[in-house]
Specification:
Elements (H helix, E strand, L loop, with lengths): L22 E5 L5 H10 L2 H8 L5 H9 L6 E8 L2 E10 L7 E8 L8 H15 L4 E6 L4 H8 L4 E5 L2 E7 L5 H26 L4
Helix pairs in contact: 1-3, 4-6
Length: 205
């Protein structure tokens, strides 16, 4: 599946037979904050430093997750076999949805190198476009080469600020394709999640 820069790909939920058939990409809702916290707590110390820019303790991570403003942000997850394994966060910087926002990525160690971060990144950009965001900012430690490789594909403006690299990404206005791609993602994600929920509730034969 090809993923084009600055847009959410169509056909994005990999619910076809194959190695990715258990992947589902969909947004998290406020009642799923425990899944977000559990994912972030499963990040190893280096990954936490990459995600938050410094070492953080379990208590700090739990407070961060529970402090999510679900009205001023979108949290997109990659669910594998019903577990949240990767997350892209898009957060408005000022008003509810201003022209500028910040983004962040996290993928659990055992699931790195499978294209999850790239898929989440491009979907996150599409979601930002559809909310009128024209500039995305991402902070990255110099050692975080995985995220740098993902972000460099869209030719960001790089600002070196001490021990951090700020990546600024300009976004085009939304169009029919970007909106349709997000709606397609949501529809497929809901259908697959609902089917999985029913399957797990069904009594064993």
């Amino acid at each position: 599946m090809e993923i084009t820069a600055l847009a959410s790909p169509q056909g994005s939920n990999d619910n076809r037979p194959g190695p990715r058939m258990a992947w589902v990409f969909r947004k998290l809702w406020a009642h799923e904050v425990d899944a977000l916290a559990a994912h972030l707590l499963r990040l190893d110390p280096q990954q936490r430093a990459f995600r938050f820019g410094r070492a953080v303790a379990d208590e700090w991570v739990a407070r961060y997750a529970n402090g999510t403003d679900w009205f001023r942000s979108v949290t997109l997850g990659c669910w594998i076999a019903g577990e949240l394994r990767g997350v892209a966060e898009v957060k408005g910087l000022d008003q509810a949805w201003p022209p500028a926002a910040e983004a962040a990525l996290s993928v659990e160690r055992a699931f790195e190198g499978r294209g999850i971060g790239t898929a989440l990144f491009h979907r996150g950009l599409g979601i930002a476009r559809n909310r009128g965001i024209t500039r995305i900012s991402m902070l990255c430690l110099p050692e975080n080469l995985r995220v740098q490789r993902i972000v460099r594909k869209v030719e960001p403006k790089l600002i070196y600020n001490g021990d951090l690299i700020e990546c600024e990404i300009g976004l085009a206005p939304p169009d029919a394709l970007s909106i349709a791609a997000e709606l397609y993602d949501e529809g497929c994600g809901f259908a697959v999640s609902f089917w999985d929920w029913q399957r797990r509730l069904a009594p064993a034969a």
